## 1
Amino acid sequence: MSFPNPATSVKLVLLGEAAVGKSSLVLRFVSNDFQENKEPTIGAAFLTQKCTIGERTIKYEIWDTAGQERFASLAPMYYRNAQAAIVVYDITKPASFIKARHWVKELHEQASKDITIALVGNKYDLVEDDTEEESLRKVSVEEGKGLAEEEGLLFFETSAKTSYNVNDVFIGIGSKIPEAASAGPNQIHQTNNDGRIDLTSDPNNRPRAAGDCAC
Amino acid sequence: MAFFDSLREKAVSTINSVLQDKKTPPGLTKEQWFCREYSLPDGEVVVAENAAEVAVISDFSTSAYKDLNNPEGRIYLTQHFIVFRDAFDRRNCSFTLHVSTVKKVERLPSKSYAVALAIGTQSKLTFTIYLVGLRSDSEKFAQTLKTVLKRNLPNVKKLQPFVQTCYSEYLLFKNNISSEKIESVPPGGLGLLFKFPGNPKELRDKSKMKLWFDLFRVDGRNLSLVKTPMFYRLIRVGLPNRLRGELWELCCGSMYLRLDYQDEYKEILEKNLHKKSLATDEIEKDLNRSLPEYAAYQSPEGIERLRRVLTAYSWKNPEVGYCQAMNIVVAALLIYMSEEQAFWALNLLCDRIVPGYYSKTMYGTLLDQRVFESLVQNTMPMLWDHITKNDIQLSVVSLPWFLSLYLSSMPLVFAFRILDVFFLQGPQTLFQVALAILKINGEELLKTDDDGSFISIIKDYFQVLDQSAHPSSPNPKYRSITKFQELLVTAFKEFAIVDDEMINTHRNKHRDTIFQNISSFVKRTELRNLPKTVNISSDTLSVIYDRFYSVVQSSVTVGSGSSLMDFNAFRTFMSEICRWVKPESDSGPEDTVFLHHLFSNWDTEGQRALSLSDLVSGLNKLVEPDLMTMITNFFDLYDYKNKGKIDREGILQISEDLLYVTNPWKEGYVLDDITKQAIENAVADEVYKANAARESNDGEILIPSQMDIDKPKFEGLQVERYLQAASTFIQRAFEYAQPEEEELLIKDLAIDNTISHNAALNPNTPVFLNLPTFRMVILADETYELLFSKTLRESIQLDTPLDNKINSMRNLRDMFDGLLADGRKVANKVRRRMDSAASNALHSNNNLSVNSSDNTSLKSGKSKIQEEEEERDDDFGVISIDEKDKDLLLGAEAQVLMDPTVDNASRTNELKKFHDAEAAAGKTVHKFEGDNLIEFET
Ligand SMILES: Nc1nc2c(ncn2[C@@H]2O[C@H](COP(=O)(O)OP(=O)(O)OP(=O)(O)O)[C@@H](O)[C@H]2O)c(=O)[nH]1
Ligand SMILES: [Mg+2]
């Protein structure tokens, strides 16, 4: 057990309307950095990052896609074989939430059956110090949670700018992905060949949602 | 015009023969192809052509140049251009001379040539053209040139303001070479204010400028320039900052658009000032995200220019609108170009150079990625094997290269060098460079086994393009070659075979697959975004979708079609799925009234066209299974103002439309349930008789293969029933239509009830029909009740396969065959008869007779229907209504349909009137049938 665990590769795709902050989330996760004026992603970008969850190391292969509507027809090329997806919307832009709904549907219809999806409402920093009366927030936590429950998704609110909750998204996804995922969906809940017990595959063991997070 | 037309005809045939070795890419006419080949604006047509030898001389020509052999080739004349290209080596000499720059044409005496012409231009060049071949042809050419020049006179005035915007002119004027007075420094790119990218010293900008200056003196400039080998060489080494914009637009031909449409850019901006659209929203999002590291785009000046060019284009070409990556391309163009230059270059780029790259479906991008993959496969099979084996998604790397023309991938200075060649040579440049990138990094790439390392190798490579390609070479000259130079050499030498023709061949090969993929993606997305339709299943929606696009004929795949259905398409659509819509060929204008109704009712946006979602929502209402909702939906069609009432005109319209919709049954070629039941019963009777005659008790029922059923009789009964229903409807509708509110008062005062009653029938009295009354009138007639509960719905077959149209002429014969084929149904009926005969042994025979043609027998048939239908108690349709039931029904209706504005007393009154009318109707049926019906039918 003291051997370093070989990393499990997880293909993860980011989807969501243009300028909601997909690339920024990735940049935060991969380089812990933020750029005020990030150029739009053309087609897709590819990045990798390792992430340790408990005893397990996951190597995320991240496909960050372009958000504009017309790039949608390229998306199947990128979510093909993805084991995880992050569907991002901007909590200050209601239209981006509608778009997120569409993406979830598309993934359910077209992507691998056992894909793990996280719904992420980004730009939390913009509403952080808002008062009740005056808020930039246009999509409530309840709406986001509602959709996530309806469709069986993980749910987070994040800020790529302040890094609030960003790592949690990837940890959450990692915990939900069965260790043997790459070997096929049948092996969920099973012990691995080398005798290690998969502690994280319990589907009920949901990661903390945005609201409960301490950070 | 005839002059041009005949010339044009001849010219086309000649071009065809000249160009026959070059394949015209599909989707282009020969004329379009010619314009593209020579970078002329679309619409230019060859009006004359000839073989020619050409000599170009300027005041500054060196003698060495003069001694060269005259280039030979073909000279073409279009409405606005004189075009020439050396037949043996196009790079040796070619020119595209705008006729506005022609100052004079002289005929030179010549012994060896049929005709020799000296053309003097504004740029002080003299083009001597020796026409070769038949004298008559040459004469004709000269004549045509004269005509072309004359016709172009009105355009000449555009020349002066235009040359004022050309830096080449300014350069010559400043150096006292040109007499053309340039008032002020021509507008240029943001680089003038914010510095051009790169170090001008390193780029040797000054020397390049000097070389171009020399070239302009000798070979002309902008609208009258001769492209010599020097021209190409100077482009290859990279353009100087200040001339880059002008030379880009000259190479790609957008300069001619800017000349022709001098005010358009400004006008578009003025016209659309403050207007918003999806595209402008999308543009706003990206303004701060376009080359953010370049100083201009951190300042309002740069952002403003970018915004103006992008929005102007989105208004000019709304089908493309705005696509991410255009922001980067335009931001880059604007460094070297004025707004207007960038605007027209963008136009040409999207329309011609990389069509479909930025369209709504980005089909061009997808297609070229596929083409690129197959080129990699063909030219670097080892690498390709490696890529497929490791499941590496090549397009992740290459798609941004193509889409942003390398501007977002490599350092700008290098990307601009590629753009220099790209504007000259078009899309092949993108492929050549892309292949060279893979080739140069091939060894490294073969070592990778996943996308990640594959991508990072190339990313790293772009960062060291300025370094030596051979750092350890002992030869200093060799050592000084940069990786970027190596890239260009590899691209344009090794991959020179990848030319337009090869690319087009590959595009043709993959086009269909790409379009198919796009269509299925678009379909999935569109279906998902449709409004919910409870009455239409998702499979049916898919069929409707296909049919919609089969009649709308928009090109979904290219992302251009507006995807709206006009009335004619709607009519075709409906005729394919509805029994009551005749195909366009055999119907008159009266047949479209109801369709027009549906059409305008479903047209929610009031744009005289239906979107797919309009259509689907409308159809959903039309196939409503709930009787009451169905009646309401139909009522709403005529309740234009949403006031809950329909006026006299509307009532007449409804009755006409009902007549129209019920045509198939009224004319007896489709049967409704009432008739079907009657026939089934008749058949059962026959079988029963036959079996009873056999006197066998084995319980087996023999179904005769032949049977004598009086078909015309059933047909006739149905026809009669429908005519009757129509006349009853109109009569009752007016009977129960209520006068307008004010009229009510007068009516209350009226002494004689019958007079006020008649007033409703008087066309001058305004009356209206409200929903409860309309329902009452419909429900009071079994045929119309059935129509709304079932017949109408079933006459629309939404899931009719695309290659199959609804058969509106199904005849009775089929019906009988069907009945016999489905023996069980008949057998059940027969068995029932046997059972009831057993218990009621005596007098069943008479009752079952359906052979008599009077009404009572039909009624007795109906009561049997009722009995048999009891098992299916959800079926409204076939409950027959007799006098007794009607009261009950109306009582119940009165409760459900309580109209708050009508008090109880008036409802009782209504009921009474209803009964009166019933009685009256009974008496007047014949009269109605005879006279009024015809009136409604026409
Ligand atoms: N305030 C705030 N701004 C953010 C946040 N995340 C991203 N942004 C900004 O939003 C803009 C768009 O961010 P990107 O990460 O490029 O968005 P994207 O979803 O990748 O966009 P596309 O590539 O066009 O699909 C940039 O200007 C970011 O700086 C956030 O959490 N808070
Ligand atoms: Mg992005």
## 2
Amino acid sequence: MTMIRVTAYENPKSIEEATTFLAKDTYVPIAGGTDVILELRNGMPVKLLDINNLKLNHVTSNKDNIEIGAACTHTQLASNPIVSQFVPLVGIAAGKVGSKQIRNRGTIGGNIVNASPCADTIPALLIYDAELVLLSKKGRRIARLDEFITSPYATIKRNDELLHSIICKKNNKTGYSYLKLGRRQAVNISRMTISVALDIDDDNAVIDACISAGSVFPVPSRMKDLEKFLRGEKIKPKLFKEAGKLAVDLMIKHSGYRWSTPYKEPVLAGLIERALMQASKGIVQDN
Amino acid sequence: METILNTNVEIKVGFKLNGLLYEKSIPANWTLLQLLRDGLGYYGTKCGCEIGECGACTVLLNGQAINSCLVLAPQIEGAEIWTIEGVADSINSLHPVQRIFIEYDAVHCGFCTPGMIMSTIALLLENSSPDENTIKTALAGNLCRCTGYVQIIEAVKKLSGIITEKDLEKFRYSE
Ligand SMILES: Cc1cc2nc3c(=O)[nH]c(=O)nc-3n(C[C@H](O)[C@H](O)[C@H](O)COP(=O)(O)OP(=O)(O)OC[C@H]3O[C@@H](n4cnc5c(N)ncnc54)[C@H](O)[C@@H]3O)c2cc1C
Ligand code: FES
Ligand code: FES
């Protein structure tokens, strides 16, 4: 077994105390630890800052927004009524992370800051134009989630900053779908996820479409060109087939042609088509 | 090199394990799994993968199933932990979950069993009559190389008819 090395462990009880530690020295924040403990096994000596006692596990709602505390666990979000009412894709995505044991420990903040290309909650959050509240001794700043991750496992968060919460815009749509494709139903790191929110009018035309993908692009992203293509179109099966093809073109344009592309091409096209079909019927999919 | 090797700090933690209070000074680089096995001699909790994939190390932490290989020992300050050693009230009276697992032949080599039983108890705490899908979701993080899972799922289904609040109450966590 590889040795974990911990040269300091702090367990602050307030945000003020936590940001003071972060300003003073290089600490690695630890929430659920499901990503960070695996990394620690490489033997790098670290100073740890436990963020579990900062009361960051709130979910609140106001007129336009939902605020989710960074330390909310996936289990908490998967069964939270405010989440399922206003940002349902986030709850579904959280419910599909790893296993029960991982969901009981893993937090949404850790999922975001770890910034894996296959982090399950990020594509769902992108549908709600999520913004991140970052705190430090220097003050508070807001970062857009779609600008937060710069490349796989890298973000614009400074070492002295704490992720406090995530702010999602309420956007009531007529239908949703979240599809996760992995090698095994449970403990799988996603091969691909698709999140869709559709707004369809009484004449069966698309008013608005929000679509995002995980493990398709280097970082989880919205597919704005695809959304534009769908807006104003009448719903018919051929439309969703074309959307699938367009998604593949976008993947190749942004990620290049890679060893996995021949596998991903038909899978992505199929998932997009299926997700749109489900969302057009108003289904919140839980496959 | 030597200096780096000896820099792990020790942290004082207080916690409750199988109903008993502990107060110990623990190396901050230990996982809960190491604390249980190497620190306290509770070898019932198994060490499989140490990366959160197999569930052999599953214990209850404040009433929830977690992988003890992915919790650092200092993080259990103030927590309530139950391991397989605390499940039966005495050596002569197995807990219903243990009895039914044996009755349904859900234990072959036994390596996954402590983890399976802790995940089953966590499930029953949430839902004392789970359907098959709920059972599969709750046990998806526990791998078994022997049974093919059928016996385990049948055992848990059987439990939903016979488990009582009295069988579960000691595991319940209240803040
Ligand atoms: C077996 C297994 C299966 C998994 N399956 C999935 C899966 O299906 N889908 C998925 O998306 N992920 C999966 N994961 C990855 C992981 O569980 C998630 O990313 C989880 O949400 C991480 O949260 P955490 O609280 O455990 O993070 P931690 O490990 O505590 O932290 C992760 C990173 O975020 C930083 N951090 C955490 N909180 C804050 C904060 N508030 N402010 C600043 N920095 C912070 C830490 O310093 C660290 O860099 C899996 C992991 C394992 C071990
Ligand atoms: S040893 Fe912890 S999950 Fe395998
Ligand atoms: S009984 Fe052998 S691993 Fe499950």
